[in-house]
Amino acid sequence: MENGTFGAPKLNGLILTGGRSTRMGRDKSQLIYHGKPQREHLTELLAPYCEAVFWSVNTEQAVELPTTDQPLIIDLFDFPGPLNGILSAFTHDSAAAWLVVACDMPLLTTRSLDALLRGRNLAKLATVFYDSDGQFPEPLLGIYEPAFHPVLKQAMIAEQYSPRQALQQHDVQILTVPDIRELANVNDPATKALLGL
């Protein structure tokens, strides 16, 4: 693995699959867009950039995956949302940086990942893109540095569970994504159909 950043902490991958998928009506991480379940496709996509790639899962999913060889990080905290997965990852390895990707970004390619790694700023708490509106940080595709762990823990203690809000309130690197379509979140069947997937 080579991320091109000398002296950087090791980079692990984290695929956020632990959402309830209520709008989609089925587990979004198991939808097939590229000839295989999305979580497996993303694992292969992230592997060249990372020391290891983990699936972030909720407790129900963990019960359904007892024999998988894929490393899992099970949600440790009692609140919903992606912050739970990210904090659980830092609890697993607080010395690593985490390349976080939501499982519902089927248009993501190495073009965006390459841009993210090239633009990574180790002096900042995280490196992310502007979201699809071009106004706010996109928390579901980015690199979270080890120094962001205590910030996120404080946010949890304060019951502020929005990772976007944490990014807005702290010193982070925000980049412009090469292709805005790659940030598309497919959360429901209507969006899936709209994108022709």
TrEMBL record:
<dbReference type="InterPro" id="IPR029044">
    <property type="entry name" value="Nucleotide-diphossugar_trans"/>
</dbReference>
<dbReference type="GO" id="GO:0061603">
    <property type="term" value="F:molybdenum cofactor guanylyltransferase activity"/>
</dbReference>
<dbReference type="InterPro" id="IPR025877">
    <property type="entry name" value="MobA-like_NTP_Trfase"/>
</dbReference>
<dbReference type="GO" id="GO:0005737">
    <property type="term" value="C:cytoplasm"/>
</dbReference>
<feature type="domain" description="MobA-like NTP transferase">
    <location>
        <begin position="13"/>
        <end position="170"/>
    </location>
</feature>
<dbReference type="GO" id="GO:0005525">
    <property type="term" value="F:GTP binding"/>
</dbReference>
<comment type="similarity">
    <text>Belongs to the MobA family.</text>
</comment>
<keyword id="KW-0808">Transferase</keyword>
<keyword id="KW-0460">Magnesium</keyword>
<feature type="binding site">
    <location>
        <begin position="16"/>
        <end position="18"/>
    </location>
    <ligand>
        <name>GTP</name>
    </ligand>
</feature>
<keyword id="KW-0963">Cytoplasm</keyword>
<feature type="binding site">
    <location>
        <position position="75"/>
    </location>
    <ligand>
        <name>GTP</name>
    </ligand>
</feature>
<keyword id="KW-0501">Molybdenum cofactor biosynthesis</keyword>
<keyword id="KW-0342">GTP-binding</keyword>
<keyword id="KW-0479">Metal-binding</keyword>
<dbReference type="GO" id="GO:0006777">
    <property type="term" value="P:Mo-molybdopterin cofactor biosynthetic process"/>
</dbReference>
<keyword id="KW-0547">Nucleotide-binding</keyword>
<dbReference type="GO" id="GO:0046872">
    <property type="term" value="F:metal ion binding"/>
</dbReference>
<feature type="binding site">
    <location>
        <position position="28"/>
    </location>
    <ligand>
        <name>GTP</name>
    </ligand>
</feature>
<protein>
    <recommendedName>
        <fullName>Probable molybdenum cofactor guanylyltransferase</fullName>
        <ecNumber>2.7.7.77</ecNumber>
    </recommendedName>
</protein>
<dbReference type="Pfam" id="PF12804">
    <property type="entry name" value="NTP_transf_3"/>
</dbReference>
<feature type="binding site">
    <location>
        <position position="104"/>
    </location>
    <ligand>
        <name>GTP</name>
    </ligand>
</feature>
<comment type="function">
    <text>Transfers a GMP moiety from GTP to Mo-molybdopterin (Mo-MPT) cofactor (Moco or molybdenum cofactor) to form Mo-molybdopterin guanine dinucleotide (Mo-MGD) cofactor.</text>
</comment>
<dbReference type="InterPro" id="IPR013482">
    <property type="entry name" value="Molybde_CF_guanTrfase"/>
</dbReference>
<feature type="binding site">
    <location>
        <position position="104"/>
    </location>
    <ligand>
        <name>Mg(2+)</name>
    </ligand>
</feature>
